[in-house]
């Protein structure tokens, strides 16, 4: 399983990767594999995550702990979901895509095992990898 996923990520790495990091199992797996690939041969990579008025201190502590010793930088975006008109998910992924473009990172990854979002690569879903 991880061999196929590592190869998928390695192929995407040359063009640069942004990981949309949720803190879930899929994101943690992708973060660990990206870190391994990065240590073998550095490439342009970053992770982004969302902070909102609904995030508690424990969630932010968990997020920061996930990146405490990582070589992959983390960018936090702040959202007040109650102030965003329209589709919040679309707004968030649009912001992530803009961040990726501004930093010349061509691939945006999500750790989702089921969701399909336009212009977002979901390698776990694409490769039919289950985390259960």
Please, could you describe this protein's structure?
This protein is an alpha/beta fold and 132 residues long. The protein contains five helices and four strands, in the order αβαβαβαβα. It has helices at 2-13, 25-40, 57-67, 88-102, 123-126; strands at 17-20, 45-52, 74-79, 107-110. A four-stranded parallel β-sheet has the order 3-2-1-4, sandwiched between helices. Helix 2 (25-40) links the parallel strand 1 and strand 2. The longest helix is centred in the N-terminal third of the chain and has 16 residues, at 25-40. It is globular. The model has no long low-confidence stretch (mean pLDDT 90).
CA gyration radius, whole angstroms: 14 Å
The fraction of residues assigned to DSSP E strands is 15-25%
- Mean of residue pLDDT? 90
Which stretches are poorly predicted, pLDDT < 50 over at least 5 residues? Answer: none
Instruction: Characterize the biggest β-sheet.
Output: 4 strands, parallel
Assign a percent range to the helix content.
Answer: 40-55%
Ends: how far apart? 13 Å
Provide a count of the helices: 5
Oligomer: single chain
What topology, given as strand order, has the largest sheet? Answer: 3-2-1-4
| 3D shape | globular
Q: Which H/E pattern describes the elements?
A: HEHEHEHEH
Q: How many strands appear in the DSSP assignment?
A: 4
Question: SS-based structural class?
Answer: alpha/beta
């Amino acid at each position: 399983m991880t061999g196929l996923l590592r190869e998928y990520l390695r192929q995407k790495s040359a063009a640069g990767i942004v990981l949309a990091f949720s803190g879930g199992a899929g994101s943690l797996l992708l973060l660990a594999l990206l870190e391994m690939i990065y240590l073998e041969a550095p490439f342009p990579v970053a992770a982004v995550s969302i902070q909102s008025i609904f995030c508690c201190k424990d969630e932010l502590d968990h997020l920061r702990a996930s990146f405490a010793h990582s070589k992959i930088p983390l960018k936090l975006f702040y959202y007040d979901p109650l102030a965003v008109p329209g589709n919040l998910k679309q707004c968030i992924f649009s912001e992530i895509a803009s961040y990726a473009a501004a930093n010349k990172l061509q691939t945006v990854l999500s750790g989702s095992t089921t969701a399909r979002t336009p212009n977002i690569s979901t390698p776990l879903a694409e490769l039919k990898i289950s985390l259960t």
